[in-house]
Design a protein that fits this description.
Number of helices: 28
Shape: elongated
Low-confidence stretches: 1-23, 439-464, 721-725
Organism: Shewanella halifaxensis (strain HAW-EB4)
Family: Belongs to the Rap family.
GO cellular component, one term: cytoplasm
Mean pLDDT: 83
Keywords: Coiled coil, Cytoplasm, Membrane, Repeat, Signal, TPR repeat, Transmembrane, Transmembrane helix
CATH topology of one domain: Alpha-Beta Plaits
Helix content: 55-70%
Largest sheet: 6 strands, mixed
CATH architecture of one domain: 2-Layer Sandwich
Number of strands: 6
InterPro entries: Bac_ResReg_Asp_Phosphatase (IPR051476), TPR-like_helical_dom_sf (IPR011990), TPR_rpt (IPR019734)
Length: about 725
């Protein structure tokens, strides 16, 4: 889940690669992307890398780059990366090795610098190791590549050397050449620190942890993985973290910490699945299977081995497939299914033999010798034990040689070949005698270590007693400083709380202030919109917009302060008389909201009475609406639509004159649609009036009403049906 897998640096690199090259590629960033997001890097290269002809000289290549307006050095670098990506573990293309070889052959003609030649040798070695499992040839290529760049201080050369040392260590580990592998790992660690990059340091520590794990030095292995985690930058690098989780699962498995082992293995499987790295999903499945196998839960182990086998078959990874067949053979043997066991083991044996993977074949031969011995097929057991002994002796694998000789001796004895059995036993005894000396020496070293630890503990206790007083004084000083610090923090928090309270009050006041008309300080149009939106318990039944027409300019005539006081008095009187919510829109223009339905004439009479008692030397005009406007209650009109409709009614009332007080209201028929109140609202309402969809009521003469029109629609014929209502 922590994947997704596209970080800012990788996005930047992909963006950078899609433009004309203006500066050299950042080799550190490129290498990290190669390891963490190889698919993203491959997609970026695919967008910029043109179709390549077959070059026979560097001059042809340079000319081609000039024609494509691409830097020849950057184009060469892209070809190198593409060839390497084709041989990456994630790549599932059937022709990946063919394409990689073609690109390598092309690079033969254009590689001139030490870096280019070294990179080409690495690609050749990678091809030999990945496609043919020819690790001896691969190591030879890599060693030549190292010689070309090992003395350079150039960053690109150091990054390449880092990769070369890593691959060499891994290949020597595969071949069980542990001493040489450790030499390369030490060089790898040194280079990572020279590069001063957290990712490379963490990766080097991780591989060292893997090495010591292979040597059964779990303590050292765990310490290196602990160091690696320190440099993983809080889980930023998903692929690196997944590899560490996978290896920790193996360590916990060997320490028999089953719960931690399963948790780490499942975390690794999930992470690799999100990354699309099926090779390591298979590895995670295999580790889970082995955790169950070590607990004797063979049927669960078989299920996970079969899952891993399906992935390896799909990927065409023959060595991985053979390893899974080997593990399945062992699991079937443990549950007593000898036939299935031998079928899987012999298939694995064929693959290991064809790929010349003797470092795996020795274990496969040993278990076949064990299984066939259990069935009494002593000749077959002897054959495989003899093969295993030859491989173990050639690779100096003493433990495996001891097991092979034991099986060989048993088989000779059962076959009646007692002289051969005796000779094998002599070799076995000689081997055991050689093994005793290191064991004795190891025991002496352990005794010396214990003695030194006891002396160290004694000295530490003596020093600790002397240091207690100093520690006490220091703790007292630290305590005083902590108390002072806490006091200052408390003061700061109190100040922050007061500021927050003050700002909260100011914000609340500003929020309330924006709802008020600025001159009178009474609720305005925004307050009406808010109240309209919150009308739950008492829905609005009547809205009226009244104009004190002769007082509309009184704010200029008598000044805003005097006019504001007059409007306040008028609004308060209206509120008390009608028990309504009044709002001031502007001087002389009031909006009223009532939760009861009131007839227009009655309302106008009441308003006239109130205004007469409060500076009422003015004519009154009123636009009034009874809510809801539409018969369909499911249709909700906005506060703005109601207010605009009131404005139109008031505008119409004002055209009737000032000889008396006038009102205008409207009522829509039941089948009227909400489109009437959409923009342009004035035009749509007027068309609806003409068509009889809206009925107008007034205490004046309807024929005298002059309906308002928006300026942009003054020339529109309201009887034109092309304009939709």
């Amino acid at each position: 889940m922590h994947i997704f897998i596209t970080r800012v640096s990788f996005i930047f690199l992909s963006f950078y690669a899609s433009h004309v090259y203006a500066a050299p590629r950042d080799e550190v960033l490129t290498e990290v992307q190669f390891r963490e997001a190889p698919k993203a890097l491959e997609q970026s290269l695919a967008k910029t890398l043109p179709a390549l002809p077959h070059f026979t000289s560097a001059q042809e290549f340079t000319l081609f780059a000039q024609q494509k307006r691409i830097s020849s050095e950057e184009l060469k670098r892209d070809i190198q990366l593409s060839a390497r990506l084709k041989m990456a573990l994630y790549n599932k293309d059937k022709n990946r090795y063919i394409v990689a070889k073609q690109l390598s052959e092309l690079l033969e003609h254009i590689s001139s610098s030490a870096f280019d030649k070294s990179y080409l040798l690495m690609l050749k070695g990678r091809y030999a190791g990945r496609s043919q499992q020819d690790y001896a040839s691969a190591i030879e290529y890599y060693q030549q590549a190292v010689q070309l760049v090992e003395h350079s201080n150039n960053q690109a050369d150091r990054v390449l050397l880092y990769t070369l040392q890593e691959h060499l260590s891994v290949m020597h580990m595969i071949l069980r050449e542990e001493v040489i592998a450790l030499q390369h790992l030490k060089k790898l660690s040194t280079i990572s620190k020279q590069l001063n990059n957290d990712y490379f340091i963490a990766h080097a520590e991780s591989i060292l942890g893997k090495y010591f794990y292979k040597q059964d030095q779990l303590g050292k292995s765990l310490s290196h993985y602990t160091e690696a985690v320190k440099y993983t930058r809080g889980g930023e690098n998903a692929s690196q973290n997944a590899h560490i989780e996978l290896q920790l699962a193996r360590i916990y498995r060997d320490l028999e910490s089953w719960e931690e082992a399963l948790t780490s293995a499942h975390n690794a499987a999930e992470a690799f699945s999100l990354l699309g790295n099926e090779n390591y999903v298979s590895s995670s499945m295999t580790v889970i299977a082995m955790i169950y196998a070590n607990q004797g839960q063979w049927y669960k182990a078989i299920d996970y081995h079969l899952n891993a086998q399906q992935i390896e078959s799909k990927l065409g990874n023959y060595i991985g497939l053979a390893l899974n067949l080997h593990n399945l053979g062992e699991a079937y043997y443990k549950i007593g299914d000898i036939q299935s066991s031998l079928i899987n083991l012999e298939r694995a044996n064929e693959i290991f033999t064809s790929k010349k993977s003797n470092h795996y074949l020795v274990y496969n031969d040993l278990i076949i010798a064990e299984v066939t011995a259990s069935t009494g097929d002593w000749q077959k057991s002897l054959d495989y034990a003899t093969k295993a002994a030859e491989i173990a002796q050639s690779k100096q694998l003493n433990e495996e040689l001891e097991e092979a000789l034991t099986r060989q001796t048993d088989a000779f004895e059962k076959l009646g070949r007692y002289e051969d059995a005796y000779n094998s036993l002599l070799i076995l005894n000689k081997l055991n005698t050689k093994a005793e000396a290191p064991a004795t020496e190891f025991d002496m070293q352990q005794s010396q270590i214990i003695e030194q630890k006891l002396k160290l503990n004694l000295n530490q206790l003596q020093n600790a007693l002397q240091a207690k007083t100093e520690q006490f004084n220091m703790l007292r000083l630290v305590s005083i400083l902590c108390i002072l610090t806490l006091f200052f923090i408390l003061l700061l928090l109190i100040k922050q709380w007061r500021l927050k309270s003050k700002f909260s009050a100011v914000n609340s006041n500003l929020t309330q202030a924006q709802l008020l008309e600025p001159f009178t300080g009474l609720p305005g149009y925004l307050a009406f919109k808010l109240d309209y939106a919150n009308q739950y318990n008492k829905p609005i039944k009547t809205l009226a917009l009244i104009s004190l027409s002769d007082q509309l300019s009184y704010d200029l005539v008598q000044g805003y302060q005097c006019n504001a006081d007059m409007n306040k008095q008028q609004l308060l009187a209206i509120k008390n008389a009608l028990n309504c919510e009044p709002y001031i829109i502007r001087p002389g223009l009031f909006l009223m909201s009532l939760d009861s339905s009131i007839e227009p004439n009655s309302l106008l009479t009441t308003l006239r009475s109130v205004i007469n008692e409060n500076d009422g030397e003015t004519s009154l005009q009123m636009g009034i609406l009874h809510l809801p406007l539409l018969g369909d209650l499911a249709i909700k009109l906005t506060a703005g639509q109601h207010f605009a409709s009131l404005q139109m009614m008031l505008s119409a009332a004002r055209t009737l004159g000032s000889d008396k007080d006038y009102f205008v209201t409207m009522k829509a028929l039941n089948f009227a649609s909400a489109g009437i109140f959409s923009k342009p609202l004035y035009l749509n309402i007027e068309k609806s009036i003409v068509r009889g969809i809206i009925k107008i009521e007034t205490n004046g003469n309807k024929e005298d009403i002059i309906w308002p029109r928006w300026k942009s629609h003054q020339n529109i014929d309201i009887n034109d049906d092309k304009i939709a209502v």
